[in-house]
Design a protein that fits this description.
The chain contains four helices and five strands, in the order ααααβββββ. By secondary structure, it is of the alpha+beta class. The relative contact order is 0.10.
């Protein structure tokens, strides 16, 4: 968004940062179905043009009743957000897994782990990206494994980041 509003010399970015941040926070996100501003404040963001037109005000309610209504609407919003995020995660998982060549590993298999690191002064083309090794500790699902690394610690890896050591 910043690239679309700043000048070509990129020296006026600070003038637009507040506007871009506000617009981002007021935009409905695909993953949640709500804007971040709404989820934090339980109301939509107010623009300058909104002050020119009459607004529909809250009915006369007592403060405890108003708080109860706000909490109920927030609870409903967060329930919808959880459902939307679950659907979004499933869609992203399906999209990622569709082109992955699945490999099946068993507990205690020794594997090489894709561990990309860049070192200053070294050519990335000559770097061994599967230098780290470990042992499969658990299978979480068809595409995800927990690996006990030889250098210590357990990490979760996708099947396309592992190679079996024969």
């Amino acid at each position: 968004m910043m690239a679309k509003v700043i000048s070509t010399n990129q020296r006026d970015w600070s003038e637009y940062l507040g506007y871009v941040t506000f617009r981002y926070n007021a935009t409905v996100h695909n993953a949640t179905g709500f804007s971040p501003f709404f989820l934090m404040t339980e109301r939509e963001a107010v623009w300058n043009v909104d002050f020119a037109f009459p607004r529909d005000t809250e009915s006369d309610t007592s403060p405890p009743e108003f708080v109860r209504n706000v909490r109920e609407r927030l609870r409903q919003a967060f329930t919808l957000v959880r459902e939307n995020l679950q659907r979004s995660a499933e869609a992203a998982s399906c999209w990622y897994n569709r082109k992955v060549a699945r490999h099946e590993f068993y507990v205690s298999d020794v594997v090489r782990v894709f561990w990309p690191r860049r070192f200053r002064g070294r050519t990335p083309k000559w770097q061994n990206l599967y230098e780290q090794t470990g042992r499969v500790a658990a299978r979480l699902n068809d595409a995800t494994y927990v690996v006990q690394l030889d250098r210590g610690g357990k990490k979760i890896f996708h099947t396309d980041k592992l190679k079996l050591i024969k």
